[in-house]
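Lecture 7, part B: from sequences to assemblies.

Below are the input chains for today's worked example.
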Amino acid sequence: MSGGTGTAPGAASGTAPGVTVRVPAKVNVQLAVGAARPDGFHDLASVFLAVSLYDEVTAAPADRLTVTCEGPDADRVPLDRTNLAARAAELLAARHGLDPAVRLHIRKAIPVAGGMAGGSADGAAALLACDALWGLATPRATLLDLCAELGSDVPFSLVGGAALGLGRGERLTELPVGGTFHWVFAVADGGLSTPVVFGAFDRLAEGRDIPVPAASPALLDALADGDTTALAGTLANDLQAAALSLRPELAATLAAGTGAGALAALVSGSGPTTAFLVKDADAATAVAEALLASGTCRATHTATSPAPGATVLRAGTPAPGATLL
Ligand SMILES: C[C@](O)(CO)[C@H](O)COP(=O)(O)OP(=O)(O)OC[C@H]1O[C@@H](n2ccc(N)nc2=O)[C@H](O)[C@@H]1O
Ligand SMILES: Nc1ncnc2c1ncn2[C@@H]1O[C@H](COP(=O)(O)OP(=O)(O)OP(=O)(O)O)[C@@H](O)[C@H]1O
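Predicted structure of the full complex, as structure tokens:
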């Protein structure tokens, strides 16, 4: 297996046989975290919302598995078999008794190790792209099982929209959303490791009773009604204190966004990306500019939600005779 950065030949030109899948980032509008389980995971009540910030994964025929990546943070993406896109291709191929010979190219816009499920998104996208490339028509329920094997956030990347995730976040129930929400995301320098943030949560929770995580009815109503003001009043992330304990400077980013008129601010998932809910597209532009000017973040993105889950954008010629093992 090999890799490198730069555009894969044909990935941008649209001429190569291959399948391109677009996949959204997520923000957890509620992340209720329970006590650590014996298997090392935490039970969650996670209200996922997909946002219009996308990675694209192209799968093209090849004689062996390779991964390439382009984008501002491409140098921080592993290009070996630990890449979630590569793991997805291997898992799907193994399920069907195939050789995972595929060239995977990732166009990465989702912050790396940013708490927006970027790697999970690429895993879900690669699964869908390889399934189409290899002409497998794997049932949706099987794809979701494979997603859950890849990681707790991966099923939601496939589904998109809005969903309540129970268990370790992988058991999804889709949720109705009654309108469009506008967001600004502030990208921090460097990333945060998800297990390290859960570890910090455990330390902060020591000696305290941790309630069984449950979704907030008021938050679910706000989503269903498309009511931005009500949603702003109910955003909650139990990992926020843990992320702030590891990266205290994020408090200044949160304050800069609310000072600039955001209706609410929170750490996205395990961080360190911060998320700002705003009234409309104009407010998003203004808050993004103010955040950049404040010098408390590296970059900003504006986005709307809900966004669709992993979607095939371009399907070329199927791989000629994917090799049976
Ligand atoms: C923080 C969130 O992004 C919120 O959506 C997710 O819970 C994290 O999901 P993820 O990155 O897909 O995480 P996984 O790859 O499944 O797990 C990575 C590690 O995070 C911790 N982890 C993850 C999910 C969970 N419910 N409890 C955990 O304690 C565990 O240490 C686990 O070994
Ligand atoms: N396709 C990928 N893109 C980015 N990182 C990947 C990928 N595959 C594996 N990784 C590894 O996963 C680590 C976490 O990256 P990722 O971008 O998924 O974090 P995250 O968005 O914080 O995850 P989550 O929100 O699901 O907890 C990275 O530091 C990297 O080593």
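Note for the exam: The chain has ten helices and 13 strands. Keep this in mind when comparing with the next example.
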